[in-house]
């Protein structure tokens, strides 16, 4: 049996599959019906035309509606690093951003008024570096951060 490579883009959802011809015979139509049944919104800038299947972000239809404060409450945030993770969760799951700029993280932290302390601004480098060292954030570029894969997986349960 030969291998088949299949890429399907439907609104904001992108699926890549590599498998047997048997899947095309038995599972492809069912998969398309299941995808069509999902209530997925279009991403801004995505039309019915082909799109880059390599792009990685949180699809619009799967976004959270939670604020930084909501994430901070769910995480029982009691420190600068906790609030930075809550801000990262907000930016990732609600705003759909994978790259978290330092200034955006700080603004998101400040938006959680009942959790934010003015000392967090002065200690932001220390907070972010500590989270990178603990593997909760990655630092792919200058003043750019991202939630680590394991942190993203942990936070998914709070995003709903």
How do you describe this structure in short?
By secondary structure, this protein is of the alpha+beta class. 46% of the residues lie in helices and 17% in strands. α4 packs across α7 and α4 crosses α8.
Q: Structural class, from secondary structure content?
A: alpha+beta
Q: How is the main sheet built?
A: 3 strands, antiparallel
Output the helix-strand order: EEHHHHEHHHEEH
| Overall geometry | elongated
Instruction: Walk across the major sheet and give the strand order.
Output: 3-5-4
Beta content? 15-25%
Q: Whole-Å distance between the termini?
A: 41 Å
Q: Segments where pLDDT lies below 50 for 5+ residues?
A: 43-62
Kindly report the average pLDDT value. 80
Number of strands: 5
Please compute the radius of gyration using only Cα atoms: 19 Å
